[in-house]
Amino acid sequence: MQNWSSVSELLLNWPTFNNSDVAAEIWARLPYVVLWCIWRQRNDVIFNNGTADTRKLMLIIKATSWTWLNMSERAMDLRKKIQFTDLLFGWRYVMSEQW
Length: 99
Fold this sequence. Notes:
The chain is mainly α. The chain contains six helices and no strands. The protein has one domain (21-95). It comes from Thalictrum thalictroides (Rue-anemone). This is Reverse transcriptase zinc-binding domain.
């Protein structure tokens, strides 16, 4: 990863995942999902007396990644090859182009 100086640089220069499978669809959305989930957890901590929990945040990122695959027909078709539990418990396998 490069050393980006702003969020907009990160998003504009996010590398592509050379794959036409579900991993590429997840990868394309990942920076947006991470930023969204961190923002929501931050707001929960500030406004609702919540706590920052890294494990919970990782689960929320995975769940949101799964949900956001509903944004395109192509991603929804690719999502049929796996189940949510595959992504939840086998993130590295799903993202390693094994499918």
